[in-house]
């Protein structure tokens, strides 16, 4: 059974940092492209970053230069380091995987999803 699980969310002040983790069971994450998505209140879910099996990465403009995605294949983990967080980053964050090596931020390209984790940025 495939499971994807996010951790590391929480409450942080503007300008602060959080690191989200994505763990998987039931499959080897090193053969998956992994994406991070988020759904802000009242908005549709959007893809914000993804990392390929070769560790190339892609970011949406709103998080570029603030967020960094990485993977540790030995531990079967993918991380999203979020720095200089802003109130508009408040959202439920999702990790998702697909067993292709290319980069994509399109939601329908992914089929193994976590339950999501809340990130709240507020003073």
Description of the structure:
This protein has 123 residues and is mostly beta strands. Helices cover 0% and strands 48% of the residues. It has no helices and eleven strands. It is globular, with a radius of gyration of 13 Å. The termini are far apart.
How is this fold's topology laid out?
Blueprint: E1 3-7, E2 10-12, E3 18-25, E4 33-39, E5 46-51, E6 57-59, E7 67-72, E8 77-82, E9 91-98, E10 112-113, E11 117-121
Parallel strand pairs: 2-11
Antiparallel strand pairs: 1-3, 3-8, 4-5, 4-9, 5-6, 7-8, 9-10, 9-11
By DSSP (H or I, 4+ residues per run), the number of helices equals 0
- Choose one word for the global shape: globular
Write the H/E string, N to C: EEEEEEEEEEE
- The N- and C-terminal alpha carbons lie at a distance of 40 Å
Pick out the low-confidence regions: none
Beta-strand content estimate: over 45%
**How many beta strands in the DSSP annotation?**
11
Q: What tags apply to this protein structure?
A:
123 residues; mainly beta; 4-stranded antiparallel β-sheet; 11 strands; 0% helix
Compose a concise summary of this entry.
With 123 residues, the chain is an all-beta fold. Helix content is 0%, strand content 48%.
């Amino acid at each position: 059974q495939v499971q994807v699980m996010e951790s590391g969310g929480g409450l942080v002040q503007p300008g602060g940092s959080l690191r989200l983790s994505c763990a998987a069971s039931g499959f080897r994450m090193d053969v998956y492209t992994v994406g991070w998505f988020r759904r802000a209140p009242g908005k549709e879910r959007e893809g914000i970053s993804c990392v390929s099996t070769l560790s190339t990465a892609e970011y949406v403009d709103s998080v570029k230069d603030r967020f960094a995605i990485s993977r540790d294949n030995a531990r079967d983990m993918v991380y999203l380091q979020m720095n200089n967080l802003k109130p508009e980053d408040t959202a439920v964050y999702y990790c998702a995987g697909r067993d292709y090596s290319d980069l994509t931020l399109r939601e329908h390209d992914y089929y193994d999803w976590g339950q999501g984790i809340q990130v709240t940025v507020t003073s």
